[in-house]
Amino acid sequence: MAPNCYNLFIPPGARQQAAGLWCEMKKRLRLVEWLLEKSIATISLASLACIVLIFVFVFREAAPILTGAKEKKLQGNAASSHSALSTTSTNAEPGASESYGDSPSPPPSSSDPGASESYGDAPSSASASTDPGASESYGDSTPLAKSSSPDSTKTASILPTVPPPAPKSEKERAEGDGASLKNLTGTSWQPVGENPKYGILPLAVGSLKVALLAILIAAPIGILSALFTSTFAPKWAKEIMKPLIELLAGIPSVVIGFLALVTLATLVQNTFGFEYRLNAFLGGIAMSLAVIPIIYTLSEDALAGVPKSFTEASLALGATPWETNLKVVLPAAVPGIFASVLLGVGRAFGETMIVLMATGNAAMLSWNVVEPVRTISASIGAEMAEVVFGETHYTVLFLLGALLFVFSFLLNAVAEIFIRDRLMKKFGGAG
Q1: Which is higher by pLDDT, 260 or 66?
Q2: CB 360 within 8 Å of CB 373
Q3: What is the pTM of this model?
């Protein structure tokens, strides 16, 4: 029987003292366990709260582009700017302002004392210097050419004025500032210009091309390597290969991107004769180096978790080791392998530095894998530091981040439903 606070196999003289010490120790241990449990729960809740806050922040910054608040704000800014320009143009008083550049309006007469000064090259004749307070011209201006004699006829040569641009219609303004659904779903990504275009489709296609190429390269290599090290390789080979493959996960992505930019780009172009040195195919190869360790590690754990009874039963029935591993062990580990591939897809979609350095960063809508591409993550990483806070470009970049969040959520949801409800039932023997 296990000892308790009052049933200890000790001499009768020290029973009460030992029982008290034992109970005190148990109380302390329970207190420590309670503190550890509460600390773990607090950390978990704080992590969950941080994730929720990140979601709220990203979607809050992306909300104006969908609700139309951005368009109203820009219209208000345009109206205020127009009123400010009108006030400035009508506030010309003699002797009150100095012009340091191109001045479309004529300066006041040189006979007025305290006349304004113009700093630039004057294309017309300067006014008489004999008058006190006459204006001095030091820059480009278009003043009226006046005669130095007060009796001469006043003649003026006025340059033709450029009419102001016609105001844009509401539809053009909405398409120009990226507030319309047509602009967001367009085929051109040109965020800088008089009429910026925020077509997300080329970026989505570029991300999809690079991710699919990376998975097509990394999945067979990672799965077959895991199958070899878990079933065929001797113990000494497994101890060497597994740490080396997993070591790739510790290499920074910027190092892989630099390797692809400097070495792999020239090698791939000379080998296959591609027109572009940086393209989606090169980005897929470089991305696969970052995805292989994820697929290999999770697949190897899934294969190692297959019960040994499956292998022994297959071998006892006369199957060869190849038949056992390919037809028994590998199908039994499909749920874990499928999860590893989905995690690899998520890593490929969210990677920034590799695609930023190896894909050419050209927003071209094409399914050709040997042409340059621009991905969603690369656009966010390259342009976020240069945008104006609160402007349309800024909001569209947050919209791209929200799309990445939604894609990751859907990917995890598919993995959860498909693996638990379908594959685990199928290979676990449930009806």
Answers
A1: 260
A2: yes
A3: 0.67
Q: How many CA atoms lie within 13 A of 350 on its CB side?
A: 17
Spatial separation of the C-alpha atoms in residues 366 and 37, rounded to whole Å: 53
* Residue 63, domain member (yes or no): no
**CATH number for the domain including 220?**
1.10.3720.10
Residue 295 belongs to a domain? yes
293 contacts: CB under 8 Å, gap ≥ 6 = 222, 245, 246, 247, 248, 249
Both tokens assigned to 278? 């940086």
Q: Which residues contact 46 (CB under 8 A, 6 or more apart)?
A: none
Q: What is the mean pLDDT of residues 289-297?
A: 92
Whether the CB-CB separation of 301 and 336 falls below 8 Å is answered with yes
Listing DSSP states for 233-279 in one string gives S-HHHHHHHHHHHHHGGGS-HHHHHHHIIIIIHHHHHHHH--S-SS-
Taking CA atoms, 277 is separated from 50, 255, 365, in Å, by: 41, 18, 18
Asked whether residue 422 is domain-assigned, the answer is yes
CA 4, 10, 15, 18 dihedral sign is negative
pLDDT at 305: 86
Residue 269, CA distances (Å) to 40, 239, 265, 277, 358 in order: 52, 36, 6, 6, 13
Residue 334, pLDDT score: 86
* Interval 25-39 mean pLDDT: 84
CB 359 within 8 A of CB 210: yes
The answer to whether residue 417 is domain-embedded is: yes
- In angstroms, the Cα distances linking 225 to 70, 112, 277, 323 are 52, 91, 30, 17
How confident is the model at residue 153, as a pLDDT? 44
Q: Of 350, 374, 385, 403, which is closest to residue 65 (Cα–Cα)?
A: 403
Query: Average pLDDT of 343-361?
Result: 90
Question: What is the domain extent for residue 352?
Answer: 201-428
Provide the domain count of the chain. Answer: 2
Helix, strand, coil shares of the chain, percent, nearest 5, are 65, 5, 35
Local confidence band at 80 (pLDDT 50, 70, 90 cut-offs): very low
Quote the tokens at residue 372. 């340059």
| DSSP characters over 210-225 | HHHHHHHHHHHHHHHH
Which range among 178-187, 262-271, 360-369 shows the weakest confidence by mean pLDDT?
A: 178-187
H-type alpha helices, 127-252: 170-176, 181-184, 201-227, 235-247
Q: Rounded CA gap, 158 and 145, in Å?
A: 9
Cβ-contact 287, 213 below 8 angstroms: yes
